[in-house]
Design goal:
58% strand; single chain; mainly beta; four-stranded antiparallel beta sheet
Length: 121
């Protein structure tokens, strides 16, 4: 069974930084795109940043210039470095990946369980 496990959330003051990690495990043949989404209370889940297996990235306008997404294909891990955090960045952050299983060779969209980021003084 393929799963994504996130870590790195927590409470941070406005202007501070956090680094989220997400590691994939299980019977994996290949991981295509990976990304981070977030969902604030009362709002829809939105894309924060995404990265292809080749390293191409895209960011939501709200985090562009303040966040960096990166990945290590060998470690099956993706990170999201967030700087200059604002209260409006408060949300549950979810890792997402398009994973080809080693047994089925089928592409599946997999979600992590989410990690809470709270930006508050």
């Amino acid at each position: 069974q393929v799963q994504l496990v996130e870590s790195g959330g927590g409470l941070v003051q406005p202007g501070g930084s956090l680094r989220l990690s997400c590691a994939a495990s299980g019977s994996i043949f290949r991981i295509n795109a990976m990304g981070w989404y977030r969902q604030a209370p009362g709002k829809q889940r939105e894309l924060v940043a995404a990265i292809t297996s080749g390293g191409s990235t895209n960011y939501a306008d709200s985090v562009k210039g303040r966040s960096t997404i990166s990945r290590d294909n060998a470690k099956k891990t993706v990170w999201l470095q967030m700087n200059s955090l604002k209260p409006e960045d408060t949300a549950v952050y979810y890792c997402n990946a398009d994973i080809v299983g080693a047994l089925s060779y089928r592409s599946l969209e997999v979600w992590g369980q989410g990690t809470l980021v709270t930006v508050s003084s």
